[in-house]
Amino acid sequence: MKEIKIYNLEFPEGVRSLNICGYIFDAVSNYDEVYKLMPNYNVTKITGSHQITAIVKILEKEEATVLPYENKELTKIYDVLFFISIFTGRNVFLHNWEGELPITADHRPHTGYGGQLRLSLKLKRKSVFRVKKTGEIIDTESAQGIPVWDLEYVSPGFDKDIEDIIVYISKEEWKKRYDDGYFLFLYRNMVQWQTIESSFLTAWTIWESLFSIENRMWISEDDLRNVKAESKISYILNKYFDITLDSKARENIRSLVNARNRLLHFGKTSISIKTPEMKMFIWITDQIMAMILGLIPDNTLNSQESLKEFLESGHVKM
Known about the structure:
This protein has 2 domains: about 5-110, no CATH class; about 175-315, no CATH class. It contains 13 helices and 8 strands. It has helices at about 30-35, 75-90, 115-120, 140-145, 160-170, 170-175, 185-190, 195-215, 220-225, 230-240, 245-265, 275-290, 305-315; strands at about 5, 15-20, 25, 50-55, 95, 130, 135-140, 150-155. The strands form 2 sheets. It has a 5-stranded antiparallel beta sheet with strand order 2-3-4-1-5. The chain has a 3-stranded antiparallel beta sheet with strand order 7-6-8. A hairpin with a 2-residue loop joins strand 2 (about 15-20) and strand 3.
């Protein structure tokens, strides 16, 4: 079985092997050492660099990708790495080139944008252990009193949850509804390290894309271009959050639209829309992505409360 080195894969705490869609990811022997050399905030704050942290065993017969990559020769391992990157907050990729080539991917952890989606990936399974001598799988309660050196920690579900998402978006019904999910590439761009203005504009593009996808069956492409941005935002809020806007809320949405237009055409937002409002819009995008991927959206950052505050007052206090 072919093995390829993997950059920047951060394993869940206590886990050193993942099995996603048949691909086995094993941590390198010096994982703890190289982990500390990555950009890191949990150990010591360092700028860090790309590090090979895992080896993946490639399947002999691979399936095609689910996501609509331009390169049609790519295989499902790229889907797996895409979602590992999204849900670990690091750019994870294969070392699949010969010689000395510069790595263009950003080595820094993703920004806080995307955090709510990562939190939405609930570890739905209880922590379990394997008794080394017998191979028996037991839960935390049953492990009480057994020496830790006699137990092997088993992944509580991260790899299975990633696989579940890939299976979920592989369904023809999902692909047909969401036009193969091309907007997920936009989302990956949104959470990369950049200014909040850039992330805000990318999030806006995602909303516009979703509006077009949801309405392309009965609105022509030309007519879609002519729909006012205010109407598109209102539609998405109603579609995904069951929010019906009153006149005051619509007025505040217009101020957000004006800020977006000003930022796009003049490079700066309006006086009324600042960082808190842009953060709110980005975090709400996190929640929409969670729903699209079949997850229950996390609200740790009080995004829904911030949205309600904005619709009522036009401002967000953070």
